[in-house]
Amino acid sequence: MGKAEKGSAKDIANRAKARGLGKLQFYCQMCAKQCRDANGFKCHQTSASHLKMMSILRDSGQKVVDDFSQEFEESYVETLRRRHGVKRVNANNVYQEVIADKHHIHMNATQWETLTSFVQYLGKKGSVIVEEDERGWFVQYIDRSEGTLKKRAMLEEMGGEEKKTKVGEGGAQTTTTAAAANAKPMSALDRIMEENRLKKAKDEEAARLKEEAAAQEEDRKRRREKREKKGKKKDYWLKKGIVVKVVNKKLEGGKFYKRKGVVREVVEKYAGRVEIKGDDEGEEDVEVILDQDDLETVVPKVGKEVVIVNGYGRGEEAVLTEILEKEFKGRVKLLEDGEIVDVDYECFSKKY
């Protein structure tokens, strides 16, 4: 059957059907394909590509389920962290935000049968704080980043000192009077011993801080060496989950020229399955396989997250802190340890 004429009633109906989420019962997780109705799903089940994926599932079923489970867990926790921070929110609200993405991992492909069992698993694992009341299950993200832990330790230390100060102010006169009445003058030997004890404690603390600083520097050095070793520029750069721009004027008669899309899958290193976003006239998103030579990276606004696709730090996520126009580079801060590096425009791209 030929394609419906653009603008016709049939074409409008097809666009409406393709927009948004489809029915779960007609979705194939192994092939990541959404069918519109039972007939389409039945035809898909007999296709060669589906049968091939089913054979893979039979050979390594548990591994496939584990991979889907891990990806679903990471997507849920990341959505909770990004959109709600450490606020207490309804677990189902977060789940609805996760499944709003057409390409999300469905829960029936994971090891959890219900959202309740999944939330309880997160609580036992220690990823989130889980509570239940009459309105349902609530979750709260636990921030274990290095900066947050340091800040928390500093606040606890300041709180302890403040508490000691208040206690001292409340009973200062009584304690001082009693101590003055009962205290015995220290002998010269006692005074020397006390000074030596304080000096030893101070030296031990300084040595401990020095060892921690050396360990942190060694860790940073090891990470830099690893990045330098891994960061040799390759002749391929596409990464899943980045935003790219089409630069081939001849592709589809220039239909996709300068249009942006998202790399959904990397195909044999040098090509990618790209989801081209529809235009403002209501055109639906389309997926095409494009060679990396037909694409270029996208430099976002300062403050947005990016992915380093080539060179030093390849594969790591970062935040764009400054655009160096004269040098055609961007200054980024790596999320793993906060290292600041300057990266060529073609070596990083906006994260979707």
Automatic annotation (TrEMBL):
Q: Name one GO molecular function term.
A: zinc ion binding
Per the record, where are the segments of Low complexity compositional bias? 172-181
Organism per entry:
Triparma retinervis
Q: Which Pfam families does the UniProt entry name for this protein?
A: C2H2-zf_KIN17, KN17_SH3, SH3_KIN17_C, WH_KIN17
InterPro entries the record matches: C2H2-Znf_KIN17, DNA/RNA-bd_Kin17_WH-like_dom, KIN17-like, KIN17_WH-like_sf, KN17_SH3, KOW_KIN17, Rib_uL2_dom2, Znf_C2H2_sf
SUPFAM superfamilies for this protein? beta-beta-alpha zinc fingers
Gene Ontology cellular component?
Answer: nucleus
Q: Record's Gene3D superfamilies?
A: 2.30.30.140, 2.30.30.30, DNA/RNA-binding protein Kin17, conserved domain
Q: Which protein are we looking at?
A: C2H2-type domain-containing protein
Q: Where is the composition biased (Basic and acidic residues)?
A: 201-220
Task: List the residue ranges of the region (Disordered).
Answer: 159-181, 201-228
Instruction: Write out the entry's keywords from A to Z.
Output: Metal-binding, Zinc, Zinc-finger
